[in-house]
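Model: Ready when you are.
Researcher: Fold this.
Model:
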Amino acid sequence: MSSPSDPLLNMLRDAAWAKSLTADQLARVEADTIERFVPAGGYACRKGESVDYWVGTMDGLLKMSCVSPEGKIITFTGVLAGAWFGEGSLLKDGPRQYDVIALRDSRLALMPRATFHWLLDNSIGFNRFVMTLLNERLGMFISLVEFDRMLDTTARLARCLAALFNPHLNPGISLKLKISQEELGYLCNASRQRVNISLKRLEEAGLVTVEYGGVTVLDLDGLRSFQSK
């Protein structure tokens, strides 16, 4: 197998879970992990397909979602550069239960299933990292059920934004987030127009400032607890 490119090597070596690996363990990860490009609108993963890789986002923006039997799109979360996902699917047999779609051109790191399980068998630090990810995702999905059913668009947008700033699921994210209103709409299942109105309300509440092509978070705790009056 050809050697990974420098950006891929950098991502692997900078990952939080890599810090606990031995030199030999990291060398195997670097040799086995491959890179894949997904254009905007393309599928990084499809519901129903076999789960062959643990996936890291080198750059770009993805959304994790599925479609209910009634045809409703349910978006779980956004996946930013530096994040890894799919560990739960690798830990059980059966096909993938959700889609992952690129909202902008994205590059992915793909660690084969065999390598992922080999690390689980040989690295206590990697085990702990994966357990933390699973726990954080569980908490995120529980809160998703609440705000998707009970909150209006502005409050949902606030919680959606706040969810992106989980340091375990999206490590290294800056409070100055480069994201378009259209992309935010995809993440919280709202039109661009509704997102624009909701961002103005959050800005008036002193929680964010809105710039062209991005949002700066001023009060993360306020976003997490925001309720429309």
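Researcher: Now this one.
Model:
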Amino acid sequence: MKRVCIVGAGAIGGFIGAKVAASGETEVSALARGKTLEALRTHGWRLRTEAELVQAPAIASDRAEELGVQDIIFIAVKGPALSSVATQIGPLIGPDTVVIPAMNGVPWWFSEGISALKGARLESVDPGGVIAKAIPQRHIVGAVVHASTSTTEPGLVLHKMGRGLILGEPQGGHSQRVGSIVELLGNSGFEVKHSESVRQDIWYKLWGNLTLNPVSAITGATADKVLGDLLLRQFCSRAMEEASQIGAAIGCAIEQSPEDRHEITAKLGAFRTSMLQDVENNRAIELDSIVTAVHEFGLRLGIATPNIDALLGLTRVFARTRGLYREQA
């Protein structure tokens, strides 16, 4: 039986943990703390869907050494917490452990192997290379999550819509290890794709989140209201065009127009972005992996990004004044 550990058993981590644990094919543990740790120890994994309450036993601890070496680790913490978490999970990682970051935005490993960047690390998401040193590249499998979840109380996840997961090797192509994880997750009820280019899939999701997340956070508006204002919609489109130029330069070309993407997003209706939810709940926002990283790409590649720069500045000051953003040291 495979051993799976969820690091960060919040909305996404709890969603993955509960569904995998309920399949009965694996031993699923959690590295957690505080009230979430207490809830997991008391109730196990809990996931509420429209049809039922899914529950399954959970092994939970706030000490990685108590959980031991794992076959698969899902990291589902918020971006600002990742540097600290990365230095704590060493006891979970063995020679063949697979580490899957199930997180928003550009991951710390993303720039590895991109010739246009000449090996430059993204300081905006991994200052000083702390994360890269703690989690060697050979362990990583890239991931994109397409699901809407929230936590109604510590340890209890509400699933709203979507069960999509995309997995792939950072360097591209298919592999046996990703194939086995795809099968495990498929058996757990996810809609899973084994991607030939997970870096492209990550960039495409980011391309939409880049504008809608921070604009909704600043304005307090749901997605339909943001896209329903012509001036805001045009501003988002201009920023997305800049990101498209960056994507083309790093081998992640976007074939759609911004307007095409807006039409797809509009079909989802009046939803609250993850960044808006963080602001509403007084949580630190994931600005660096979603916006600052794209700004950094532009600087490194010599691509002008005036609209992205304006969006970054506005969101950064907005969040600073509310104590929801602090530059990583």
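Researcher: Key takeaway?
Model: Residues 230 and 269 are 17 Å apart (CA to CA).
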